[in-house]
Amino acid sequence: MKLKIDKIVLVLISLSLLIGIYTIYQRTEIEKQYKTAEIILDYSEMKKFADSSEEDLGWWLREFKKYGAESVAVPEETVKLLIESGKPLRAEMVSEMIKNYNWQNDYNEQISAMVDEGSIKNNDVIITTQDESLFDYLNSGLTERYDRSFFDTYHMNDDYYIVLKGTSDDIYYSDIQKIWDLEGKGVYESKIVVDSRLLNIGIGYDEEKINLIKDSGLDVILRPINFPTYNEKLADVYKSTNEKYDLEPRIYLLGSKEILGYPENEQSILDYVKENNIAIALIENSTQREHLDGKGLNKLVENSGYSAMRVFTMWDYIRERNKYYNYEGAEEIENTMFRAITERNIRAIYFKPFFEEQKSNKYLTDAEEYERTFSSLKNRLSEHNIKLGKAEPMKEFHVGSKRLSVLAFGITLAAVLLFIKMFNIKDSRANYLYLFAVPAAFIPLVARGIAEKGFAFAAAVIFSGLGIYFYMAQIKKIYGETKKYSFINIISYSTLILTGAVIISLVGAIFLDAMLADVKYFLEMDIFRGVKFAQILPFGIFIVMFIIYFMNKEEDESVKSVVKTTARFLNKEVKIYYGIIVGIIGAAAYIYISRTGHETNIQPSSIEMISRNFMEYVLLARPRTKEFLIAFPAIFAAVYAASKKSEFFTGVFMLAAAMGTSSIINTFSHLRTPIYLSLARTVIALGFGIAIGIIAVIIIDIFNKIYLRLQERFK
Fold it and tell me: 128 φ, ψ to 5°?
């Protein structure tokens, strides 16, 4: 009867799994359509780069067009940018200006009087120029974008004045500075004014820049700036500017910390995005996780039907990686771009020229190195059926609550199955626990948000645990048998056991990815949290099962006997080398967990990164080191140890193998990574793991024979 129930449960889990497989199939069909990556050049950086070289900007733009660049992002002009570019312009914050001795000498008497009497306030900014055409440009841009009450204009003698009316919210400060007296006692804290938002609001675009880019054969992508105080007209200006210069608005790149029209006037930019199928750029964080926050950005993406794409920007620490890891050129920068596109669903590189070396601001101006970098990048991307060109937004995809209910039903059945197997429960009344799968199936219908991540987390832990149970049960059979195992037997059984455990873990990965098969996870607007915890829990499951299945020598299989076994284990005398091995395992476990993600200080060594890069060059996907080098071969070592009836080493190697079942599911937990790549990574790791496992058995057998001979000699 018990066996019959197990079969029914496995059939029901399999039926639920079919829904998961179909969901994964739908996801892969979307991923197949998402095969173009775009190189967007940063205008400001390209201009600085060109100025430091022997060629002008137009020449470099045409060169990068040949390399594969498709567009150039042009920032909206600001007063600050105009001053930095050398325009005959002066702009001062009133609060800082009046601190200067005889400041009145720099201004017309009428302006000085307005400052003194308070009609021009401390938070205002005064812009001064004697260039009439520049004044007209500023006045026209401000009038087009903002309410007339925001600024005043004056023409006095030869000077043109524009007064921008600010508030305290427009002031930018430095960090708080503490002032100390001679005795080291704090006197007061001071905030130093360093800038004003008014100097950084949009005032127009430079027509010469736009024409230069168009003449180079590249698309122009405008980066408009939002101003929360006066935002009613900004989206319309963005639209009219695209029309004025005959630009195709394919990508919306924020030029400020908010979307156009934020707050309260976002509808206009939303309508424009939807009408033109514009891809909203989500610029990835420097930690390679989620994206830079912009007020109103997530809501805009959601309301647009997820018309968005992930964008990788060239952070300075990446641009410095020329001749990194002993490469001859910018190979490591190329590797970084390649990984971003293939592994993280990045579909646009916001490109900035390289620096010559680390901690240097000197640009690398070797055209041949850029040509080599992009040529190699294109060749490597072609192996993944990805090309450089004009990128498009990702297709919208969601999973219905009813489908999630079916998946939740299967995951809950698996949870009960694991519970019964983990504690080796023989009482048939435990089968009633499977009935919990029925109410569990209703959770996605009433609490979808909790259900998505909750059941995904459960799938990660449960199927990792079932994988552990599978290989432990099989190895226990070998441990308990009296027959001798040949080398071929050990290799054959190890390969079958490892493959079975991998398949069970892949089932868990399917359930997890199906539960979270939503475009918001592909774009990493939401992420699967609890990844580290999902990798730790299986080790606890392993310990429980090892005590029950290996250490419990009593015929009685009750909970009481398990408790007694645990107590005996805790009171057992520990040999020194046992403690050393456990210490090594503990250190390895700490490093294993700490290195998950990019937020930790523990990162791969240079040698490991070089080997990783090599595997990326020669393989479709780089297998995970902890799988093929540690966890998978550990199954072979555990089978060998079990055949030699060594309980301690069987346990140690099985513990190391537990890393593999959770690692496989963790690979698929990175929802931004295409399914085919995660699958290829696992299959390649399995192949490598089998090969290294065979080698490990040979080496262990040699050491074991040497040990036995020495033992005989010293008897």
Answer: -130, 135
Structure token pair of residue 330: 């910018």
| CA–CA gap between residue 298 and residue 398 (Å, rounded) | 16
Number of helices followed by number of strands (H, E) in the chain: 28, 16
Residue 679 carries which side chain, given as an amino acid letter? L
Instruction: Round to whole Å and give the CA distance between 671 and 452.
Output: 13
Cβ neighbours for 74, distance < 8 A, ≥ 6 positions apart: 43, 205, 206, 209, 210, 213, 220, 221, 222, 223
What is the SS3 assignment for 178? strand
165 and 124 Cβ atoms separated by less than 8 Å: yes
Residue 478 has pLDDT above 80, yes or no: yes
What angle (nearest 5°) sits at the alpha carbon of residue 440, between those of residues 406 and 451? 80
Helix (H) or strand (E) holding 332: helix 331-343
Spacing of C-alpha 446 from chain mean position: 30
**Interacting residues of 218 by C-beta distance below 8 A, sequence separation 6+:** 41, 61, 64, 65, 69, 70, 71, 72
Tens of pLDDT, residues 696-715: 999 999 998 888 888 777 76
Cβ–Cβ < 8 Å for 259, 238:
no
Burial class (CB in 10 A: 0-12, 13-18, 19+), 576: exposed
β-bridge pairing 186-190 and 177-180: antiparallel
Element of type H or E holding 219: strand 219-223
Positive or negative, the Cα torsion across 147, 150, 154, 159? negative
Both tokens of 182, joined, read 């001679």
Grouping H, G, I as helix, E, B as strand and the rest as coil, residue 621 is: coil
For 642-676, what is each residue's pLDDT tens digit?
999 998 899 999 999 999 999 999 999 999 999 99
Which two three-digit tokens encode residue 695? Answer: 């080698």
Contacts for 235 with CB less than 8 Å, ≥ 6 apart: 260, 261, 265, 268, 269, 272
Rounded to two decimals, the pTM is 0.90
Angle between helices 331-343 and 367-382 in degrees, nearest 10 = 30
φ, ψ dihedrals at 155, nearest 5°: -125, 110
Contacts of 179 (CB under 8 A, 6+ apart): 186, 187, 188, 189, 190
Q: Point out which residues pair with 310 in neighbouring strands.
A: 282, 346
Between the CA of residue 176 and those of 95, 173, 179, 341, 351, what are the distances in Å?
18, 8, 10, 40, 34
Q: Which of 247, 248, 93, 103 is nearest to 172 (CA)?
A: 93
143 vs 381: CA distance, rounded Å: 47
Strand order of the β-sheet with 90-93 is 90-93, 125-129, 159-164, 151-156
Pairing of strands 71-75, 36-42: parallel
User: What pLDDT, in 10s, does the model give residues 413-465?
Assistant: 999 999 999 998 888 888 999 999 999 999 999 999 899 999 999 999 999 99
DSSP state of 253: -
C-alpha span between 340 and 360 (Å, rounded): 24
CA distance 371 to 67: 6
| CA dist 388 → 93, 186, 593 (Å) | 45, 58, 36
Cα Rg, the chain, nearest whole Å = 32
DSSP letters, 61-72, are HHHHHHHT--EE
Q: Which CA distances in Å does 659 have to 128, 196, 466?
A: 67, 53, 13
Closest residue by Cα to residue 515 from 445, 442, 459, 447: 459
In the chain, the amino acid numbered 680 is: A
What's the CA gap between 255 and 373, in Å, rounded?
28
- What is the bridge-based pairing of β-strands 186-190 and 219-223? unpaired
d(CA 560, CA 564): 6
Share in percent of the chain as helix, strand, coil (round to 5): 60, 10, 30
What region does 204 belong to: left with phi over 0, alpha with psi -120 to 50, or beta? left
